[in-house]
Amino acid sequence: MTDNQSPDAAAQRARDRSSAAHDALAARPGVTFSASEDIVIVLHPGFDTLDAVGPHYFLSSMIGATVHLATTGAAGEPVTSAGGLPLPPTTTLLDAPEKPTVLLVPGGDTGVLLADKPAMAAIRRLGQAAGTVASVCTGAIALGAAGLLQGRRATTHWSVRHLLAGYGATPTDERVTADGNVLTAAGVTAGMDLALALVARLRGDDYARILELVAEYAPQPPFGTGTPESAGPELAAIARDMLATIEHDLRAR
């Protein structure tokens, strides 16, 4: 076996290709290859798993960024999602960076979060200081209740989108809505779209394009019923009634 065919030589060629590709991405116009963003994702009891984990995948892929999983509860205690997945926090809302680059609130059992006055006060404080405020699904209702959506265009899960007006926001039916430094996403899976929009803002469009490609994020839902319009009136009515208690709990008082 010649040197060029040796396993060590092949491994070195692979490393060289990878390094050159990283350099090529860094050299593209508008790309910030490495930075030191502080991104705070709020973990509250009953958060929707994908609301947090989906954005975490893309945001933690930014070289140099730090993603803080901030619990609304006691330090070190795992926070269990609505689907039963326990996630260990890395900090608490009280100890999170005071001026985060991004504050992101996932949805889920948002009524529980709204009733947690210290947590809501912390979200208000961090949101007012953050470079960008973001939410996924019903997390937008928490932003609204914290006074962070006043006069803003915003979206959320289709079943509670109409409630945004009660919190001073203008509802949209967009998958991701950007209004100044506030970005909100529709239901659950839209959190990944939101995360890519955040990556584009922070690191440039081509950086986000590369992450989308590497993740092979090219959804092809098998039934195409992801909106009330595409599901049809019968299924939409059943789904809306299934979520009636959530709608009731999140209505502005």
Question: What does this 3D model show about the protein?
Answer:
- Helices cover about 40% and strands about 15% of the residues.
- It has helices at about 5-25, 50-60, 110-115, 115-130, 140-145, 190-205, 205-215, 230, 235-240, 245-250; strands spanning about 40-45, 65-70, 80, 85, 90, 100-105, 130-135, 155, 170, 175-180, 180-185.
- It is globular, with a radius of gyration of 20 Å.
- The strands form three sheets. Strands 5-2-1-6-7-11-10 form a seven-stranded mixed beta sheet, with helices on both faces.
- The chain starts with 6 loop residues before the first helix and ends with a helix.
- It has ten helices and eleven strands.
- By secondary structure, it is an alpha/beta fold.
- It has a single domain (about 20-220), classed as Rossmann fold (3-Layer(aba) Sandwich).
- A hairpin with a 2-residue loop joins strand 10 and strand 11.
